[in-house]
Design goal:
The chain is α+β, with helices and mostly antiparallel strands. Helix content is 29%, strand content 24%. The chain folds into two domains: 2-168, Sulfite Oxidase, Chain A, domain 2 (Alpha-Beta Complex), CATH 3.90.420; 171-270, Cytochrome c-like domain (Cytochrome Bc1 Complex, Chain D, domain 2), CATH 1.10.760.10. Bound molecules: heme C. The site of heme C has 20 residues, from helix 9.
Amino acid sequence: MASIGVMMGLSGLIAAQDSAVIEFRNKGEMVGTLRLDEFDKIATASPLRIFEAHEQRARIYQAYPARQLFDQVFGEEWRAAEEIVFLCEDNYQPSIPVAKFLAYDAYFAFASADDSLFMLTNVLQNNEMVKLGPLYLVWDNLKSSELREEGAVDMPYQVIGIELASFAARFPKLFPPVKASQEVQRGFLHFRKYCIACHTINGQGGGKAPELNYPLSVTEYIKPEYLKRWMDNPSSIRYNTAMPALAAETPAREKVMEEIIAYLQAMRTVKRAPGKAPE
Ligand code: HEC
């Protein structure tokens, strides 16, 4: 870890962190921007100990409570929104239901609470060493086994933008055909939870991993058994791959994988060209 600090210049890294700017949007409209060193004016930082799923060990971060921050930035009406989308420097883009922020305690970490650099070694992603700042969304998961079962889902790092959104309005091209089976509908929900932060379908979703539907669906060139293996154990297919396996703790894991494949198959019939043109 020290070598990266030396390479980038440790003081440079810290200065860049303080002056980092976070953008807040509500349904596409800019609400405001905040420099990281201004967060202290609206929220109270404290140390938070979590199970760090990316490293499979406990760690302590300095963090601001998410609900307090949202109340200050968006006003209390954020609670009536549907989803919160997080934009990240590495193009990871999870969309997390507001209900989860009301049911569990989320925090924005901005530093380690010990002497360690604000970085981690992502054991889920080929041991890649990643910086966490400016903001890193974490959950008070030591008191919730449900949250721990989710692994690193909904824990975006390098967050630079936070946006209130309606899922249907922001990601219309992800929806399966109207008459799709319940299996496909469940697969869609799983895909939203476990895949869409990295991958796009019809150009919508995260830009960290390949498009899976347009112009050719993965189900047209990868057999179902290998699609399952991509989720179950990606490195058994591609050496050094940056794709993480679906977390071992995922409830009903086998069924989840089958339903995701059903969703991907159904999307073959609703291919839409990526791009800004409305449908
Ligand atoms: C943390 C980011 C991330 C998540 C989450 C993720 N993937 Fe991936 N995925 C990748 C990356 C990166 C690649 C490219 C890997 C490579 O080529 O080595 C990839 C590759 C794939 C491929 C192979 C595509 C091809 O054409 O070769 C499939 C299929 C796939 N992912 C499906 C899924 C599914 C289904 C999920 C949800 C269960 C998922 N991925 C979740 C990052 C992710």
